[in-house]
Amino acid sequence: MGGDTEADILMRAGVLEQIEPGIQAPNAEVIDVSGRVVLPGLIEAHCHLDKTLYGGEWVPHSAGDALSDRIDTERRRRGELGVPNVDNIAALLERMVAAGTTYVRTHTDIDPALGLSGVEAVQAAVDRLESRITVEQVAFPQYGVLTNPGTAELLEEALKNGVGVIGGLDPAGIDRDPVRHLDVVFGLAESYGAGIDIHLHDGGTLGTWQLELIAERTAATGLGGHVAVSHAYGLGQADEVTQERLAVRLAEAGVALVTAAVYDFPMPPIKKLRAAGVTVACGHDGIRDLWGPYGSGDMLERAMHVAYRSTFRRDEDIELALEAASYGGAQLLGLNVYGLTPGAPADLVVVDARTPAEAVVTRPARDLVLKRGRVVARAGGVESDRAAGASADAKDGNHHAR
């Protein structure tokens, strides 16, 4: 990805050392991937691992169409279905690894009835994967901050316990007091050096007004580069002049946008945002949970949805969707060294395609997935430590991909 010619890739101690034709490395193991496209490790920038039913028995969807219906249904049924479930979370993470995802940002519900059980369940599942994937949790107030007493205190407890990002949810639509909501979220972020990721489903001018509030607060607090807004439906509904003005405002403030391209909900204007310099990332949102039965854990498939919903047809446009699933996600997560460049961690995905755009459209099986030089998946399946050890040290693989 990003190169027009064939090249060799030399990895040593889990780091990309050289990327150029004709590398001579006589003592390295050679993995032949000629004729295939090499992508950087894919990044799932917005999901809800703690809610997933993945890997369990099929659960017919029973919620109504309104946002409040889905929230109420989840609140009522999660105990009955044993959510969060470590086995389900681990099963979904394995699927993500097999599909080439190397980093995940997940929004974990924080609520007085749940305590920090979701945070603990996600971490337990991550531990099972034994460094095959890196997961960053967001302390997420799914049922509101101001309207759900005790949540603000638990959000702070999550930050004290090592969660690095604080979430928000519809400051106007759910909490009905955007200024106080942002006071809490930004105040905690400043106190604990945390990032911010706010779900903003509110549409129309109410949504765009809140985007402006978030941009203003970001600039005032100096948190640019550490703040993201997920969904931003109002921006997708706005007229072109408003979209262009807000794109410049978000870029200046350092606010990233994350989209999931779900159902027919409005999509933010990716080309306008990127042209203005806004970081754009993407993810699945819910994956087989009480909010909806869809989602595969495959970020090439998600990039295809982003491209399709954006009516992208040209290769260079389709690659904008793939950028959101890779380099955009890396910027969002603050990965200062990432991608197909010497010195970056050797997180690679190999696919049988001629171009990155073809990989998005056809979504072939992942021939090979490496996490810091370690083979973690092959031919669409997760690689066991025993199998990986046959070709490289399990932690610090030394490879020469040709």
Describe the structure.
- The protein is built from 14 helices and 17 strands.
- The protein is α/β, with parallel strands linked by helices and 402 residues long.
- The chain has an eight-stranded parallel sheet, sandwiched between helices. A five-stranded antiparallel sheet has the order 4-13-14-15-16. It has a four-stranded mixed sheet with strand order 2-1-17-3, with no helix packed on it.
- The longest helix is centred in the middle third of the chain and has 18 residues, at 204-221.
- The two termini are 15 Å apart.
pLDDT < 50 runs, ≥5 residues: 387-397
Strand residue content = 15-25%
Distance separating the two termini: 15 Å
Overall 3D form: globular
Report Rg: 21 Å
Structural class: alpha/beta
Largest sheet: 8 strands, parallel
Topology:
Blueprint: E1 8-12, E2 15-20, E3 29-31, E4 37-40, E5 42-47, H1 67-77, H2 86-98, E6 101-109, H3 117-128, E7 134-140, H4 151-160, E8 165-169, H5 178-192, E9 195-200, H6 204-221, E10 227-231, H7 233-237, H8 240-253, E11 255-259, H9 270-276, E12 280-282, H10 299-309, H11 315-324, H12 327-333, E13 348-351, H13 356-362, E14 366-371, E15 374-378, E16 381-382, H14 385-391, E17 399-401
Parallel strand pairs: 3-17, 5-6, 6-7, 7-8, 8-9, 9-10, 10-11, 11-12
Antiparallel strand pairs: 1-2, 1-17, 4-13, 13-14, 14-15, 15-16
